[in-house]
Amino acid sequence: MDNIIPITYLNDFVFCPYSVYLHQIFDNNEDIVYHAEPQQTGKASHRTIDEPKTQKVKIIKGIYVLSYELGIYGKIDTFYPDEQRLVESKYRITAIYKGYYYQIWAQYFALTEMGYNVQELTFYSISDKKTFSVPVPQQPQYQELKQHIHTILHFDFAKPLTVNPAKCAKCIYASLCDKTNSDHVYA
Q1: pTM (2 decimals)?
Q2: Range of the domain at 100
Q3: Cα–Cα nearest to 1, from 182, 166, 154, 181
Q4: Is the pLDDT of residue 1 over 50?
Q5: Maximum Cα–Cα distance for the chain, whole Å?
Q6: What is the pLDDT of residues 113-165, one digit of tens each?
Q7: How are the residues of the chain apportioned to helix, strand and coil, as percentages rounded to the nearest 5?
Q8: In principle, which of 74, 87, 133, 142 could form an S-S bond with 78, CB 3.0–4.6 Å?
Q9: What is the CATH number of the domain that holds 101?
Q10: Would residue 183 count as lying in a domain?
């Protein structure tokens, strides 16, 4: 693959393809420039995941993973090698969206390509401490993920985009976006 993209783009693209473009534009700025309060809260709670602590259970946190086969890289949240369990954490999970699946599938395939044995996938909702188990992806999910990555890599950001006002209202980039004329609800 000629391009290697961040795993975070997989979810961002599902939310709104143009957010991937805006993410790239603002990537070198301080998050406070465009992050609304919910994103700041989520990022702050994520620090507890990324910062290693002394623990009796063997845990791998916040390491970068890479899949040359898929052309993706990114950080995992938590991997329990003895339990062979990968955990993707979100501040608050009210539904498991397709983009969430793409993220954890990408992490799974990257870890397995790197030689780790992963037998269980879970999402963890930090705010209410709920855990959601999801099936380990198989070949159909691998192909779906590969197609999604292909779609991102070949997306024409110059073509007209149909916006979803409900999503735009919750988008951290809404006030910076030229595809909508409304600010996000947290502005």
Answers
A1: 0.81
A2: 5-176
A3: 154
A4: no
A5: 53
A6: 999 999 999 999 999 999 999 999 999 999 999 999 999 999 998 888 888 88
A7: 40, 15, 45
A8: 87
A9: 3.90.320.10
A10: no
Angle at which helix 98-113 crosses helix 8-15, to 10 degrees, equals 160
Tokens 């970068």 found at: 64
* pLDDT for the residue numbered 28: 64
List C-alpha distances in Å: 79 to 24, 57, 72.
28, 11, 18
Write the single-letter amino acid at 107.
Answer: Q
Q: Which helix (H) or strand (E) holds 53?
A: none
Q: Residue 125 domain-assigned? A: yes
Q: Is 89 exposed, middle or buried (0-12, 13-18, 19+ CB in 10 A)?
A: buried
Residue-level length of the chain: 187
- The SS3 assignment for 159 reads coil
| pLDDT tens string 9-64 | 999 999 889 888 887 777 665 555 445 565 555 555 555 555 555 556 699 999 99
Residues 6+ apart with CB under 8 A from 21: 157
Within 13 Å, how many C-alpha atoms sit on residue 174's CB side?
19
132, 48 contact by CB (below 8 A):
no
